[in-house]
Amino acid sequence: MAGPTPFSIAVPDEVLTDLAERLAGTRFVDDSPRRPPSRMSVPYLRDLVRSWRTWDWRARERWLNGHPQFTADLATPHSTCTRVPTGRTRRRCS
């Protein structure tokens, strides 16, 4: 089993363009009168889609890449691990 390998996030532009197009094309239907009480309403979904459309994905990518990140082969499956010193005892990714 290999040790942790440094990892950084690099989302291709095409992926973010596709996401933006899909979000822009979202069509909402009115809430059903039989909607279960899950709080998943059309106004909530509209707000969620609006926030995703205005989210600065590249800024979040830079922020995430500002922290040490690693992948480690755990036999199965492949996993992602982050380590951020907090002043407490550090845990090892393996």
Automatic annotation (TrEMBL):
Residues 5-75 form the Epoxide hydrolase N-terminal domain. Pfam families: EHN (PF06441). This is Epoxide hydrolase N-terminal domain-containing protein. GO terms for molecular function: hydrolase activity. Keywords: Hydrolase.
